[in-house]
């Protein structure tokens, strides 16, 4: 293969791979913080006459512009791809099934902890006399954001193949992913194809961004930096703006009430342009971010928080449901008009209460992120068992995404009980029935990064 055929931005893979990438760590944490902030500040609650009405603060004039930054799923999938590449390169040769199984378990087991509370909790709340509709709404919201994990489980199953694809095609596959995403949108918006076809873009759009992360993790994006990265970012946002101005896409990069359609559910090709914009800007300041994160105290904090990012993602919505429930029902306080003086007066106390609840949840449940598969079992894992286990986990999480933990669907074939059973069976298949916790020590941590020892917790970074 001649050099003239290679995409100019993709250099040969770096060697040896870094033990950890501070830029990736910070980018992931930044994305999680924005996810939490957006979900905590968006909801508008009003309960009167026995009916709970929910709204969205971003429906204020111009609120859609915030979503061009706060829609950070491109950053999350990018950092996931980068961590995948780094992790697989560090482990060297050998079967990838153990690696895939362990990654899926790290996603699935914290979900089971969430389910252990939320399967019985709605029924308990109903028994205590709370109105049925608000309980159902809250129980549904707890599961709604798990869509990301359902998509990520499927991509994780394909990760070794995607890494090999990146090695062979060296970036050309990104054109294929983008072509599929555009073709799906054309079929939906120009030829009235069913919206169900749009869910193919879950893999086309997010798979493309994840694939870009794989190339970054293999050192092939070294040429995108400084002015070049900035120009790429500006071009990405410009293409997104043109698509919104002249295409069928709404200006919000998330689904907002009143929009004729959602760019997010199912994802549309305009999110690829948004991803290029966001990643271009991030890569433009990559060296500055890495230098700041390399400070010992900063690195120690980043290390600790990185080990709890999954727990934060899972439990920030339950924290919202709990605090909102107390505010609305116990204190009889609805949400003031978004961005009004009263809203600003109360936002600090609102976020403080949510933070307290989330911190408690993280302290209790974050250790479950360090569950790993016993090596003897993983070494013997068959492809069929891996595929069946991963599929059961993915389908179970998808069912929770659609219906949450609503008590009225508890016994339904696609209800929460069957969904949790599916995840549980998937975990047992992947682990051989012998999952063990690695609360301390061990080599290799979450997302391909080293585990954080007590030295890191006291401010010394583990090497």
UniProtKB/TrEMBL annotation:
Keyword Nucleus listed: no
InterPro entries listed in its UniProt record: Acyl_transf_3_dom
Keyword Transmembrane helix in annotation: yes
Pfam name, any one: Acyl_transf_3
Every Acyltransferase domain range: 22-362
Keyword vocabulary terms for this entry: Acyltransferase, Membrane, Transferase, Transmembrane, Transmembrane helix
Coiled coil: none
Transmembrane intervals: 65-86, 107-129, 141-162, 229-249, 269-285, 312-331, 343-365, 386-405, 411-430
Molecular function terms from GO: acyltransferase activity
Region annotation Disordered: where it falls in the sequence: 441-463
Protein name listed in UniProt: Acyltransferase
């Amino acid at each position: 293969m001649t050099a003239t055929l290679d995409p100019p931005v993709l250099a040969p893979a770096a060697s040896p791979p870094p033990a950890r990438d501070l830029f990736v760590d910070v980018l992931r944490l930044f994305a999680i913080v924005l996810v939490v902030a957006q979900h905590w500040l968006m909801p508008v609650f009003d309960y009167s006459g026995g009916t709970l009405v929910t709204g969205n603060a971003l429906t204020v004039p111009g609120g859609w512009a915030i979503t061009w930054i706060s829609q950070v799923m491109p950053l999350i999938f990018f950092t996931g791809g980068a961590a995948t590449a780094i992790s697989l390169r560090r482990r060297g040769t050998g079967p990838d099934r153990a690696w895939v199984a362990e990654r899926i378990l790290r996603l699935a087991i914290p979900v089971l902890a969430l389910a252990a509370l939320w399967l019985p909790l709605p029924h308990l709340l109903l028994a205590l006399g709370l109105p049925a509709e608000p309980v159902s709404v809250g129980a549904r919201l707890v599961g709604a954001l798990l869509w990301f994990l359902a998509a990520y489980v499927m991509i994780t199953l394909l990760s070794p193949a995607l890494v090999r694809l990146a090695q062979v095609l060296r970036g050309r596959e990104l054109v294929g992913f983008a072509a599929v995403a555009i073709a799906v949108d054309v079929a939906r918006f120009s030829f009235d194809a069913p919206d169900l076809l749009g869910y193919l873009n879950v893999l086309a759009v997010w798979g493309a961004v994840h694939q870009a992360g794989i190339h970054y993790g293999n050192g092939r994006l070294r040429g995108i930096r400084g002015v070049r990265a900035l120009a790429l970012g500006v071009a990405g946002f410009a293409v997104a703006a043109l698509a919104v101005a002249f295409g069928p896409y709404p200006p919000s990069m998330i689904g907002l009430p009143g929009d004729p359609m959602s760019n997010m559910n199912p994802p549309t090709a305009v999110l690829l342009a948004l991803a290029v914009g966001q990643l271009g800007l991030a890569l433009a300041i990559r060296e500055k971010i890495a230098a700041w994160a390399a400070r010992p105290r900063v690195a120690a904090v980043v290390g600790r928080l990185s080990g709890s990012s999954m727990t934060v993602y899972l439990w920030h919505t339950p924290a919202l449901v709990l605090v909102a429930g107390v505010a609305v029902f116990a204190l009889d306080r609805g949400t003031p008009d978004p961005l009004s003086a009263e809203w600003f007066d109360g936002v600090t106390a609102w976020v403080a209460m949510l933070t307290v609840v989330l911190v408690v949840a993280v302290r209790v449940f974050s250790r479950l992120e360090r569950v790993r598969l016993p090596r003897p079992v993983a070494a013997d894992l068959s492809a069929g068992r891996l595929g069946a286990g991963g599929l059961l986990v993915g389908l179970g999480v998808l069912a929770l995404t659609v219906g949450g933990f609503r008590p009225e669907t508890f016994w339904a074939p696609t209800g929460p009980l069957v969904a949790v059973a599916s995840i549980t069976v998937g975990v047992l298949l992947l682990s051989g029935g012998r999952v063990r916790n690695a609360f301390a020590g061990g080599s290799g941590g979450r997302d391909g990064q080293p585990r954080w020892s007590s030295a890191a917790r006291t401010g010394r970074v583990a090497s």
